Amino acid sequence: MEIEKLELYRSIAEMAYVIAKADKGLSSQERIAFYDVIQKELDYDSWAAQSRFELLDEVIDPSLDKTYNDAINDFKRYKKHVTPEVKEKTIRVMQKVADACNGFNEKEAFIIDRVKRDLDAL
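^ thats the sequence. predicted structure below, dont judge the formating
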């Protein structure tokens, strides 16, 4: 796996972590949804996203702002590899994780809109 692709998949996991924690913390439903979604979306390379998500959740537990900014900085760093497919995949993963527990709320919708704008600006 190319290092750029690996880093982008880790950034997708960071965005999923932000959306999962945005409402009332990280529920077991959202964890399960994340693992299911990345397995379907990233296939054999889902391990990269899964390891980042677990690291954030179990070890680091960063603020949502820091996690968001770290992910956006990685997307910027590897922007020539951020294809329309990567952008769509990022949003799709976030939406599916948000839907896993009580559907979208205003905060999650705001975050996803922000991600769309930030990715479109690359």
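The mean pLDDT is 89.
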